[in-house]
Specification:
TFIIIC_Bblock-bd, binds iron/sulfur cluster, 3-stranded antiparallel beta sheet, alpha+beta, two-stranded antiparallel ribbon, 20% strand
Length: 112
């Protein structure tokens, strides 16, 4: 687990990703073990890999997949006691003419 964390931190630290053949050297880890860890991280959706040529050799550029923050504070979706109307809505959607959405937006504008 310690190796996996180190590898993930290395990948995350590179804005433009890191080549797989640099990764195992920088992590000071066996190439095959590094490859297994990278496979696992890719399956878990933590990283993606794109094939790339480096000095005539085929390797992969590995990048961390940024996760969008989920809304943790549901109060942000509330206006008075009205939850954001689009959440879970299955009505025929015409936002410009939607009464629930209009009421929610007016409530939002009237909040202090
Ligand atoms: S705009 Fe209105 S109809 Fe469209 S998803 Fe939101 S609440 Fe539903």
């Amino acid at each position: 687990m310690e190796d996996e964390e180190r590898i993930l931190e290395l990948i995350m630290s590179r804005e433009h990703g890191i080549l797989q053949n640099e990764l195992w050297r920088e992590a000071k880890i066996d190439r095959r073990k590094c490859s297994r860890i990278v496979d696992r991280l890719e399956k878990d959706g933590e990283i993606n890999r794109e094939q790339e040529l480096n000095k005539g050799l085929r390797t992969y550029r590995i990048k961390y997949i940024e996760r969008k923050e989920t809304v943790k504070d549901f109060k942000l979706l509330m206006v008075d006691d009205m939850f954001a109307p689009c959440t879970g809505c299955n009505l025929e959607c015409t936002p410009a003419q939607c009464v629930p959405l209009s009421e929610w937006i007016f409530g939002l504008l009237n909040e202090e």
